Amino acid sequence: MPETISSSGLAELWQSALPQLAESVGHAACDSFLRSAQVLEFDGETLLLGVANEFARDWLREKHLPAISSCLSELVEKPVRVEMQVVEHQVHQPMPQTVHTVPAKPVATGFGSVPLNPKYTFENFVVADCNRFAHAAGQQVSKSPGKSYNPFFIHSKVGLGKTHLLQAIGHAVVEHNPNLQVVYISAESFVNQLIGSMRDNRTAQFRRRYRNVDVWLVDDIQFIAAIKGPASEEEFFHTFNTLCETNKQVVIASDAPPRHLQLMNDRLRSRLEMGIVADLRCPDVETRIAILDKRAQSEGLNLPLEILTYIAEKIESNIRVLEGALLKVCAQISLTDEQPTLSAVEELIADYSTAAAPRLVSVRDIAEYVADQMDCPLEDMLGPKRNQEIVWPRQVAVYLARELTNNSLANTGDFFGGRDHSTILHGYNKVSELLETDEEVLWLINDLKSGLQT
Ligand code: ADP
Ligand code: MG
Questions:
Q1: Average pLDDT over residues 117-137
Q2: Mean pLDDT over all residues of the chain?
Q3: Among the bound ligands, the one closest to the CA of 219
Q4: Three-state secondary structure along 253-308?
């Protein structure tokens, strides 16, 4: 390594460090803070990094200095000390195109806006047990935004329909009331815009932008929690509060329930929990087939059930991957103009596979949890008593045991005090029926399921 390096050499050095940096600090953070940074000086020992603003500098210093330094040290094969400096007038990165507004009212300029994905509607959303509650709540919210459930918080693992549902709410709001201003934004984009506005002294404008929003759809809020930047979390909290307090609807999607988000602001967490929290779970195989069927039809194809079933059985835990496999098959059909055989499909999607996470809850876990949550002593739940205060929690626990475990009716009956399988089935059916008609039951089951599965 020479003692001084030309500026193009420095840029090259930084470029070659970025992939590794993205691995160690996370891609989102790398895109927000590091990609736009530049190496100002490097004397072989100390490297001076120019970053966009004070926020980026403080955040990187506090959180990622060791990672950045070890990454660079590895690259130049000797220890590198990293220092940071805010550089004014940096070349602007283009704003990511992630603000979506429905063009009812013109959008403030300078915040690139694109419409919602037209495919992400309620009509295209297949409703099943895994998402019934979130779907129902989402529809309610879209009918009376700001009035029913505020905020509405949706969480799930990746690829299970959060973004779809969020945008479906947006579409439906505008359908019911074209004058409402709907903004869909990813938390990452929110942070990027915030940083941009801080850099350009436009924070007042940034805040003003949200004054006219009627429905704010924020996707992947875990990003705000993950970056641990006090400024972005505070700004989010500020916008969130302003909107909630003026009865504007806020809908949030996240990869974890509020209590698992690494937020620094406890008030934010408790406000997130104050609204309604719904999760999306992995669809069962019938639902996966229904989703595939709907999707194939929207591509103008009628695939034989045998093929849909094969794909649905192979890919269990991520609808996006499921659709990816289907699209591959569709592409093949449009290329060859004929239906592929099952074995051709097997070959085509041989690389796709996502096994569902093993079910970890046991009947005992369920019984203990339900007993605790519904204030029913466990020994009564498992005992002979038949008064309503005991029977109802028992039926709920039985329902959840059937839903969340693979135990047979007979085994479940044995566990719940040696009851026979018809009693178990009766309890299960009772709860299933109420779920269709009674919103409170829907809430109860939803909460219990979320609690058990996280
Ligand atoms: P997430 O945001 O949770 O990662 P997405 O909303 O991006 O998931 O969903 C992944 C894909 O699966 C999208 O193409 C979406 O349309 C589709 N999808 C998810 N849930 C459903 C559903 N219930 N019915 C139909 N398609 C769905
Ligand atoms: Mg998403």
A1: 94
A2: 85
A3: 2
A4: EECCCHHHCCCCCHHHHHHHHHCEEEEECCCCHHHHHHHHHHHHHHCCCCCCHHHH
